[in-house]
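Reopening closed ticket. The problem is back. First fold of the pair:
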Amino acid sequence: MSKHFEEELQDLHSDLLKMDAFAEEAIARSVEALREQDARLAQAVIEHDARIDALELVLDERCLDLIARHQPMAKDLRFIATAMRLNSELERIADLAVDIAQRVLELSGSPLLKPLVDIPKLAVLAQTMVKTSIDSFIVKDSELAKKVILMDSEADRLKRLIQNELIQEYIVKDGSVAPRAVPLLLVARHLERICDHATNIAEDVIYLVKGEVVKHHPERISDVKTYADQPSAVNPPEYA
């Protein structure tokens, strides 16, 4: 590999981490806006999304340019292909943070239907899965990536719990509360989709590190312990 090509790959890696920082910040700020019912913060999340969209386009163009000029093979090609997929996943995660911010605006001016209990739990899990999936990319750790994949079932469980409570305990009993319940239902859906995208990132990391496709093949991660046996999803281990 030429020194110039290696430097270009390092620059791509650095900008991809910048994209991740933007996406993680968007999640954190949208969740804070929901918790504090802060319409101004929610609007800031929405307005910042243009910068994330612009960076996505820059990274995509850079990846295509690297492929065209250097015609990489083997691990270098896998890295660039993975970078393109991660770039797309992170942009979609940021879009979902915008969706959450929009739900905050819909709820603005009305008291919350109920105290937020399980939605914050799902939000913490979503943030953890995104961070851990990117950590697995940084340190090229396929086992860490597999742990992210196993966390997704907990995200699905929390989303179902939130939906069942809001529908059965509130909307069914009093249809007039629907305008305050539906945005919360959608927030749960948005957060669960963030977890799905974090899972996709983890699957891409496994492909990058091992050249192994685990998407749609859960049996290929059977050597990892169950989610319940892993360190707490809300307090993941630190990785350099």
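Second fold of the pair, where the issue appears:
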Amino acid sequence: MSEKIICILGGTGFVGHHLINRLTRAGYSVRAPTRRRERHRDLLVNPRVQLIEANIYEPAVLRKLFADCTAVVNLVGILNERGHREPGLGFDRAHIELPREIVEAMRASQVKRLLHMSALNAYPREEHSHYLRSKGQGEDLVHASAHGLQVTSFRPSVIFGPGDSFFNRFATLLRITPVVFPLACADSRFAPVYVGDVVEAMARALENSSSIGKHCDLCGPETYTLAELVDYTARQIGVCRRIWKLSDGLSWMQARMLEYVPGKPFSRDNYWSLQKESVCQQNYLTTLGITPTAIDAVVPAYLAQRSMRAGYQRLRSQARRG
């Protein structure tokens, strides 16, 4: 039996790490390109992983990466652009131009199977959010270009799990914000989906021909407002904060200010994305036979390490060692 090689673009990110672990456990070999190989040495301990330093925005590089592959997975995405000139160009490059090059390189390399990561509420004619518009156009592009290809796209709500940038980011912000926590778009609604369920859905789709051509919405079992999720995070890390729900006008002002802070913790594009409910009408996890995982089953374990009590215990153990 020939070796099954999966090329994962974006494999060194949060979802990518979990997907690599899931696929290599199933016997696949994984080819993961990265711009800085030395930053991801943790992946090199897995003998089934080829970590290759490469620029995936070069068509010739993509063709070389896809050679002999069974399938390609595209996880590349950005939540905010760098800089402030010509808004939308960064989103278009990552979410539209790259998928177009991926499809062309797959044809040239004779690889047929593509799993593509989109986003819930991605819509090609979205008026305000560059993120949702570009994600929608990229998703439509790979499906429209599917002549000769076998495409499945995935549209998750916010993804949580060890190493996430959702609960972990709010945990950090809550710890450094005294007494009152000002929260924009506090009534936005989410159905957070566990990263383990997301990668399980992708792994099963690889072996399930009925998923070809599908746009798969992925959600967790419960719906929460953003304020409820932030309050939940505060309780898990053992801090008492009053959540100040900002009005729509103040939310917009906060977005305008924070998008000029290094790292862009919040932007006007994020504000527009939050105007849409991130919930599923039909959850494809159940179609694949996956029972969605609740946040209570996973989040307390990894946020416990960020609690004040855990911090005190670390200091005490260090003092004893001293």
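Update: turned out to be a display glitch only; the data is intact. The mean pLDDT is 93. The domain at 5-164+192-220+279-293 is CATH 3.40.50.720 (Rossmann fold). Please close again.
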